Prior knowledge:
By secondary structure, the protein is mainly alpha-helical. It has 6 domains: 3-144, no CATH class; 155-308, Cullin Repeats (5 helical Cullin repeat like, Up-down Bundle), CATH 1.20.1310; 314-393, Up-down Bundle (5 helical Cullin repeat like), CATH 1.20.1310; 409-471, no CATH class; 484-581, Cullin, Chain C, Domain 2 (Ribosomal Protein S5, domain 2); 593-671, Winged helix-like DNA-binding domain superfamily/Winged helix DNA-binding domain (Arc Repressor Mutant, subunit A). Helix content is 65%, strand content 6%. The chain contains 26 helices and 9 strands. It has helices spanning 3-27, 29-41, 50-84, 90-101, 103-110, 125-144, 155-176, 183-195, 198-213, 217-229, 231-260, 264-281, 286-301, 304-308, 314-327, 336-352, 356-372, 379-393, 395-425, 455-471, 503-510, 520-527, 531-543, 593-620, 625-635, 643-655; strands spanning 485-492, 495-502, 517-519, 547-548, 566-569, 579-581, 622-624, 659-661, 668-671. The protein has a 3-stranded mixed sheet with strand order 1-2-6. A 3-stranded antiparallel sheet has the order 3-5-4. A 3-stranded antiparallel sheet has the order 7-9-8. The protein starts with a helix and ends with a strand.
Amino acid sequence: MTDEDLLKLYEKHFYNYEYSCRLLNDTCHYLNRHWVRRLDDSGRRDVYEIDELAKRIWKETFFKPISPNIAQICLNLIKEHRINKLSIDIETIKKTIEMYADQNVNKKMKDLIKNDSISAPITDIYQQCFEIKFLQDTEDFYRQQKVPSLESNSTIEYLILISEYFDQEMNFGKLILPKSKSTFQLLVNKLEEIFLPEQKLSIIMDKMKAIISNENSQDLKRVYEPVSRIPNISNQVIQLIENHIYENGINTIERISDNAINDPKTYIETLIDILKKFLEIFDAGPNFKVALNQACQKFTNNNAVTQKANTTTKSSELLARYCDILLRKGNKNIEETDLEEKFNEIMIIFDYIEDKDIYEKFYSKMLSKRLINQLSISEDSEESMISKLKQTCGLEYTTKLEQKLKDIRVSKDLTDDYSKYCEKKQLKYSDKFSVMVLSSNSWSFSTPLNIILPIKLNATFESFKHFYTNRYNGRKLMWLHQYSKGELETIFINKEYTLKVSTYEMVVLLLFNKKLHWTVEEIQDKTQIQSELLLQVLCNLLKSKILFSKKIPEDFQDNDIKMNHIIELKEDFTSKESQINLDVPLKSTKPKDLKYLNKSIDEDRKLVIQATIVRIMKQKQSLKHSLLMEEVIELSTRFKPNIPSIKKCIDLLIEKEYLERDSNNKDILRYLA
């Protein structure tokens, strides 16, 4: 009988015996549960359950006498395979070795051998009979073989040659070695000890540092495969690449930081250039890309620009502003194909930023401005960018952004329908009239301010309101005059002008059809425009020279205009342009938008963290405080929550009675249904 035949016979008898034991144990379930359990509780240690007794019999009569021999047969077959490249029955060897390492067998037999002649615990039998000898055989084999030397080969050639040995041994080890044991890692350590002693490793790493520092893409491609097969070198090389890219990125951003902090184009295109450069150099394989991604993520979120801005969220803000530049009208030099390429580059940077919720807030705000002011380069481009965000972050991330585009499309149809409605009802209608009906849950606007509209304007608004409320019963319209605009046709000194104005400016200018001069207080009384906003409107109209005041100096500011000042229409106004754009965005009378934006983001983050905690605890029911925080950080994809914020949210959920602390262990949290 050959060695392989003996292994197969052993395997066959072992599995047949094990199967029979299970059947017998199930048959004697009542005996185990009542009689054996009762004797065991009374202190008897010489009575076993049927399954344990059967394992003891197998050990005494079969396993103990032949276990060293069976293990040696496996080792001999492995040695033959190494020396003569003979084909062996890998599956049989694997199953035999697993019998030694089987934790279930070990657990059942552990108590059975404490009084036997085998002094070592059963968990050491695998090591004594197989693992130690297997590792020693590996070392003996390669010490006796004529293996490549670093002295007679270049560093790269040596790596290529020894990587083949690593590849052979590791692939073979994965086939036969049990996953429940650490033998595979010990095998790797043994190979590194043989082929990469400290002195050789030092020489190799010095060479790798030089290749990486010189950014030699050809050599990097040559060494990638061998390096990736040798775990110790692979880990060190990946770290070297990561450090090199990080330092290069940090230094590059440092050089442009003074300009880039307020210039999204400079900042983002610098990041893209860095990324493109290193993608080309380190494009040898996935392990190098891991180093590239880790380095880029670090310097994207923390660099000279974010430090000068005193916030790690600056990259998210600048990326959103860069998108705004690309998507606004005026980029005549950018073709549609180039724009799509730019979007793809943006998404690469987007993957690296940690504060994706900050990006979404800024992007959403700028999208609103583009759509309301009709500054978007095209609807297709807007949809393309949002689609890419959706692919990366999911439907929930882009729901409000998509709703905004939908509102604009629906509003165009609504305007057309209103035009037909006016024709049918024979109502006065201007073909320049258009309306945007925006859903309040997707658009974050300040509270609408009531103003007194001229009769002609008010009639149009009331007509549309009647049309809309009849079509959509139960819906409520709130007019946002602060975002509206229109055109006024005027005649000064027999010349026609078209003034493009905001609704506030229109309301003020139409007053001068009644008389040519008003005090500021009268204008405020007639229009009911908030005084701070009215001063801005008047300031803009005075600077345009359409209005003037004898008491206000030429280099005036908003606060130079007093309520008792008389504002007059300049009847002899002239301009070279027939169309004059007077629509200037008004400054908010509230504290800075950024402050409110940050507050909104903080509130949103608290809700996200709380929802994540509840979801985790609902599934786990109870969890240690530290483990809960780890899971919250791991599951947060839109931003990286800090520890203090998570702790505050946990305390808040305890107050709300979603969670409670364990009465016996305060470090354990429990979910309350």
